[in-house]
Fold this sequence. Notes:
mainly beta, five-stranded antiparallel beta sheet
Amino acid sequence: MKRIILMIIIGLFLIQSVLGQDSDCIPNDHRGCYQGGAYWIDSCNVQGDLIEECHNRQCEDGICIGDDESCYPLVSTDADSARIEIQGSVQRLNVLNVNILNNNIYYEVYNEDSDIRNPPIWSQAAPSELTGPCYSVGKDYCTKLQRVYEDDDWKYAVLLDTCGDETDLRIKKEIISTSPLSKLYKISDNIAGFDNGEEVIQIVLKEMPLVDIPAGATKALFKIISSSGFDEVWVNKNDCIIGSGGACNVKLTSVWVYSPYKQVTLTKVEGIDEMETKSINIQIPRASPLKKISNYGAEAGTGENDIITFLLKDSNPDSNEVLIENFYNDKNLGTKWLSESSCLSWTAENCRIGIKDIDFKYDTIYLTLRDDSFDEEVFLKIQIIKPTEETGPIETPKSRIKEEPSEIEERSVQELPFICSGCQLESKCFPFGYRKEGKFCSENEDFMSQLEANSICENNFECKTNSCLDNQCTEPGFWQKIFKWLSRLFG
């Protein structure tokens, strides 16, 4: 019983000690910082009331220091664009279209510090957030669409920044020129179709050169295909791609770059009373299309500075295959036997460059390569000359041209390309291993000097003595010495 009473007394003493200690804490004893704000701290180091939020200023010892930048102003840079700097990062906003009926805008935002741009989107109906949030200044937005309006010539978007100031951006109204029955639609990644009610015109994105500006590009090359033929045209941003009757049907409203694609926005011009502007995006890889560099070679860009090269080296009509040598920039990736439908270069998702067709006629190869990313085809035609030990040297087409009728003489040498499957010298193609004037035709497709005695070898023709024994060129008179020794032994 005494033990229980003693434990109760000790417990009451401890409780009194704790309560007495709490009552000794002095509130608002000093300042402190917590999660970007200045707070009161009591003498027992317990956080108290908030003094102030520091936002984009620094907090030291419970005091917000630095300039009181309480907002980020939006600055107009053009009729349809503005910029805003947020903690050292500059963002640009472009208005591409204004829809008065739906009270919203079609716009894009990109960071000037990089070449990455977000795809254009339609905003929510005003008032709505366009960029943000900007928590550092206590706002759930950085830029907000306040309202839209129009006059006789322009459509306007009123934007609000975190400073409470409004900026008007505007785009010019288009002349009504497009039939309401016309359609603009996407055919593939880089091809759009415009149906004007009479025919479908294909718009193929071919190229977009990069320039040293924040957007990364200002114009694009298109191939326009119609019933009357095709044409390739350069189009600047906001210029017309397809027009009729002196007015525009389809215009280029956006040219932008993001990794790993170059992309454009095409817009069907509906006119003043539009319900919704029809816009689509088509794109190409950040590369360059396949092109012919010789009668037996082609190359394509895989990036801004990277080139892949394909060279036709040999063929096998029996298996319907060709031997392709592959280069990445200056690095030789080796050779490989390939057949029709084989892929030469891949994108992240599918085959980009492949073999479309292989055809053999006599000793000539006809090879078609296709670049699906750019809708481009390259045709290679080459004659394969394969001399053997039985045929000996074979004259090349260049030397034969001079002996044929004048009708053929007028054809350039380039029209009769050939590959010497051996060593070419003095207008002739020599078979591998052929010996001539102290040299031999090597696997490197070049004549090399024959090796001296005791040199390492693989074939007899590599040695001056025309004898390779145990991977070593024999000395002059080696076999004569052997014959003499045998004759003495058995003589």
